[in-house]
Amino acid sequence: MKVEILKTKKRLDVSVEGKLDANTSPELEEKLMPALDDIQTLIFDFSELLTISSAGLRVLLSAVKRMDELGGTMTVKNASEDVKKVFRLTGFLKVMNVV
Questions:
Q1: pLDDT (tens digit per residue) in 11-29
Q2: How far apart are CA 25 and CA 52, in angstroms?
Q3: Which of 25, 32, 29 minimizes the C-alpha distance to 7?
Q4: What is the DSSP letter of 33?
Q5: pLDDT in tens, 19-63
Q6: Do residues 17 and 48 touch, judged by C-beta distance below 8 A?
Q7: 2-98 CATH fold
Q8: Residue 75, beta-bridge partner list
């Protein structure tokens, strides 16, 4: 997995490439959570994300909760149909903005 994080003022853009699973989600969480302080807009670009597991979903749920605490927003963009299917089956489309 490859993670790129770009912070611009109160916006954080996170690109994830590869697989987001039990092996890689701790790395994303370690990079992401400290970077969320003072963020109002969090955008995940999943155009290069191949698969996501329950461990990856847990990181996203933590990010949603943190953004709610900060009064900010979180958006997932460019997710593949396979990743969107996981979101749909797990009910994550109800708690996340997926475009």
A1: 999 999 999 999 999 999 9
A2: 9
A3: 32
A4: H
A5: 999 999 999 999 999 999 889 999 999 999 999 999 999 999 999
A6: yes
A7: Transcription Regulator spoIIAA (3.30.750)
A8: 43, 97
